[in-house]
Every structure is written in structure tokens, then in C-alpha cells.
Design goal:
single chain
């Protein structure tokens, strides 16, 4: 059981890292405009989206170079897989922001469980054709991601990287 959880964490690593990248580019003083302030809010930026995709690609490159025998997918097509993970994670986050704005939830306010699972669901939708996951795998990914997201965001808040704990 523990080895399967580790396999799933390794598999989802590009999405996890992609989700953590956008807060770091807010410090970039260059062109970093919102994708659509009206629809997504001011926190979803072009550079944040691009950074998420880029780091997901870099993580899949690293996974391909590591060549772990326990990996759930073949990393021969690491570039395409990385783009799927990154774009899926960022698209899931943007879709959640769209619904969050329409529901009247202000930016930075918690919207549980959507804040914790948006990027995971987006990434899974985009990589589904490349990975044969069982329903139990999806349940494990969602449970671990939910708890892990809360923990990582609290750490980011304490470090001053994030404005909100959620």
C-alpha cells in the first residue's frame, strides 16, 4: 500500500510542482498581467500559468532522467506528458477560479474542497490517456492531495510566499 502511494506521489509530482510555481512569479517585475481579471480574478496571471507548465515539463524531464522502474507511466514522451500535467493543473485552477468568482467567493478566501483539488482534477483529466489508473488510485490521489495541499499552503503562508493559508 505504501509503495503504491509513493508511486502515485511520484506520478503526480509534475502537477504538484506546477501548482506551487505561480506564487513565485508574482515577484517578477516584468509583464505579468492577469489572464482575465473579470472572469478569473487578478491572481491568475499569464506568467503564473506559463511558470506552472514550464516547471511541470522540467519535473517530467527529471523523472525521465531518473528512470525509476516503479514509475506508472513511460517518460519517453516526457515533454508531452509535462505539458499535459502543467496545462491540466493550471487549467483546473483557472476553471475553479471562474466558478469561485461566479459564486461570489473573494480571492484568497477558502473554498474547500475545490481550492485543494482543482489542479489535481485538471491534471488528471489531461493525463488520463497516458496513465492507467484504478478508481482506488484516484481516491488515494485525491485524499493525499487534499491533505498535502493544506499543509503546503500553510507552510507557504508562514514563509511569506502566499497571502492566504488556503
Amino acid at each position: 500500500m505504501l509503495s503504491r502511494v509513493l508511486q502515485l506521489l511520484y506520478f503526480m509530482a509534475p502537477a504538484y510542482v506546477a501548482n506551487m510555481a505561480p506564487p513565485f512569479v508574482r515577484y517578477w517585475q516584468g509583464w505579468n498581467r492577469p489572464i482575465s481579471e473579470r472572469w478569473l480574478g487578478s491572481h491568475k496571471t499569464v506568467m503564473g500559468f506559463a511558470a506552472g507548465v514550464l516547471v511541470a515539463v522540467l519535473v517530467t524531464l527529471l523523472q525521465w532522467r531518473i528512470g525509476w522502474d516503479g514509475a506508472l507511466v513511460a517518460y519517453d514522451g516526457w515533454l508531452g506528458l509535462g505539458v499535459r500535467f502543467g496545462a491540466g493543473a493550471m487549467a483546473g485552477d483557472c476553471a475553479k477560479s471562474l466558478f469561485k468568482r461566479r459564486a461570489g467567493v473573494p480571492p484568497g478566501k477558502p473554498w474547500i474542497p475545490f481550492d485543494q483539488l482543482d489542479f489535481v482534477l485538471g491534471a488528471l483529466v489531461f493525463v488520463w490517456p497516458r496513465a492507467a489508473l484504478a478508481w482506488s488510485d484516484l481516491a488515494i490521489i485525491l485524499l493525499v492531495s487534499f491533505g498535502g495541499h493544506i499543509l503546503v499552503n500553510h507552510i507557504g503562508y508562514w514563509l511569506g510566499v502566499r497571502d492566504a493559508r488556503w
